[in-house]
Amino acid sequence: MEAFIPTGQPPAPGEHVTVEVHDIGFGGEGVARHREFVIFIPGTIPGETVEAEVTEVKKQFARAKLLRVVHPSADRVVPPCPHFGLCGGCQYQHIAYSRQLEIKRKQVSDLLVRIGKFPAEKVDPVIPCPEPYGYRNRIMVRSHWNKPAQKLDIGFLEAESRLVVDVERCAIAEPVLNEQLLEVRKNPPPRGGIKVVLRVAPEGWVVPRDSFFQNNFFLLPKLVETVRSRIQDAGSRFLVDAYCGVGFFSLEMADVVESYVGVELDGMAIRSARQNAQKRARANGEFLEGQAELLLPSLVKRFPPEATTVIVDPPRKGCGPEILQCLREVRPKQVLYVSCHPATLSRDLNILCEGGVFDLERIVPLDMFPQTQHVESVADIRSGS
Prior knowledge:
Number of domains: 3
Helix content: 10-25%
CATH superfamily of the largest domain: Vaccinia Virus protein VP39
């Protein structure tokens, strides 16, 4: 994915342009150039020639809406969802799944090169999801009063506004959630602006309603397998799990280490983690409530750094500077960075590896979010020599 630097004359709003799409930006929009000026066009695929109408012009780029595909890609497919293009939940339903995986690998590697200054060869092929549709186990349903139609719209936010698309069925949600969605529509909220979270509880796990859990059960075994194999490859004997949530990674890895400790700010999640540990008889570790930024320095020092793996699975904004500095100072044998945002991942890896403190072994992307712009990645870095 290239850096978008304007080099030509911008088009005018409302102008119709015919262009060739040559890339896809991380937001899922096709990238084209008109008179050498960058234009983002949703719903397109690299290699296509399309006609589009310019809707917005900025200093460095323009946006346009797709009017017609002049020469379609061989990877173009018919989206199964009638709301695709209007609903903001999916960006890639028009692209064959195998091509989606190629696009996501390129996006991760491009960001790794451009922001992290690492070689693209460090990125593995994306591990596919066995169920590209009907996989999401959690959705947030929104409501909005549609004044012109005099009715309450219930569904998801539009791609280009804060309005709500009225949706009866979500193509990427698990079937049971679509049944719940129909119940919400039969018994609607009393007014617009109310959010309703629908969720399938993970089997065998205690998870509070508002606590985080991975949203794709179908690819979860591959995520566990990836993290486990990386820890075993490093030969670590101890595990520190920052942002541990309900203890998912700690407890799934507890049998391959001598001892573990997890830390999480969400008190309800920590109580659930302790319950999950009891249910699984994982007595070789503990869970602590608190800010990872404050507790991590002392936790890492519990174990010999040369035999310890630290797992960080932060929010999309990435790790705070305190955690990055702590890891650079303590220099555990291995850091496994689990991320759903390749840009912040690349940024943080660059900081961690600066000066040879850590070396990047590899990045394993997993398609936890088929049909969307998002991709999960597991980065394995090791203490430098």
